[in-house]
Amino acid sequence: YSPTEQQKITRAVKDLRTIMAVKQVIQTQYQEVLRRAFPNGNFNELPMIKQEQAYTAVMYYDPVLKPCQAEAIEQWQANPPQVFSPQEHQQGLAYLSGQLSLDQLENHHLQRVLKHDGTKQLFFGECKADPTIKNSQIEKIQKQLKGQQAKDDQYRKVNIGHYQPLNYKPVSPSYYLKTAFSNAIMTALYARDEDYERQKQARGLKETEWEMTKKQRQHQTRNRHEDGGMYL
């Protein structure tokens, strides 16, 4: 290799090591939070992106990191809790549109939420459910932020080797929670939770019974139709 090529290789290896080290730090952070929220979890089974999704949901809906019961998660999915008041929605949007500074927000949880892209998307989703806020107001801010994000990504691509932008798509809280806590993820989060296992088995049994009953009914109905046809 020429000295220039060697230099490039050395830099690439260094960049890669930095990325790996950063990933390790992030993963440790995810797992520390998830361990508190899901003390019976087995997080090694979860890919990092799935850990991140669960982490984001926990940081938004359970910032004090109380252990999450499976029933609570199901309730979140069915009816995502409103975390902030309409006034806080307006304050948050004012910050995101550059009208307020972060330290002008009184709610510290709101400050934390708006600092991170993942939780920020959940905040937007919550704002969309607020009847006092026009969708056009939210969309305008999202468009503005997207433009800024594109500029930042471009700058990082130029200045940071191997930079991969993380794009968080706007999704509804309900959809996000169903994705973040899919059956497979729930199994990992409650891996050593006997109650959850029992409930899961009972639910599975109930679903099997229901399916069998349904098939039986269909079979009986079909037989009746066939019998009726014979006697016509």
List the helices and strands and how they pair.
Blueprint: H1 3-37, H2 48-61, H3 70-78, H4 86-96, H5 108-115, H6 117-128, H7 135-159, H8 173-180, H9 183-189, H10 194-231
Helix pairs in contact: 1-2, 2-6, 2-8, 3-8, 4-6
Region (Disordered): 200-232
Biased composition (Basic and acidic residues): 200-214, 223-232
Protein name: Nickase
What does this molecule look like?
The chain has a domain at 84-171. It has ten helices and no strands. The chain has helices at 3-37, 48-61, 70-78, 86-96, 108-115, 117-128, 135-159, 173-180, 183-189, 194-231. The termini are far apart. Residues 200-214, 223-232 have a biased composition (Basic and acidic residues).
Radius of gyration from CA coordinates: 24 Å
Q: Using DSSP, what is the number of strands?
A: 0
The separation of the N and C termini measures 90 Å
Give the topology string: H per helix, E per strand.
HHHHHHHHHH
| Structural class by helix and strand composition | mainly alpha
Low-confidence stretches: 228-232
The major β-sheet equals:
none
The average pLDDT score comes to 83
What key phrases describe this protein's structure?
about 230 residues; mainly alpha; 10 helices; about 0% strand; globular
TL;DR?
It contains 10 helices and no strands. The chain has 232 residues and is an all-alpha fold. Helix 2 crosses helix 8 and helix 3 (70-78) packs antiparallel against helix 8.
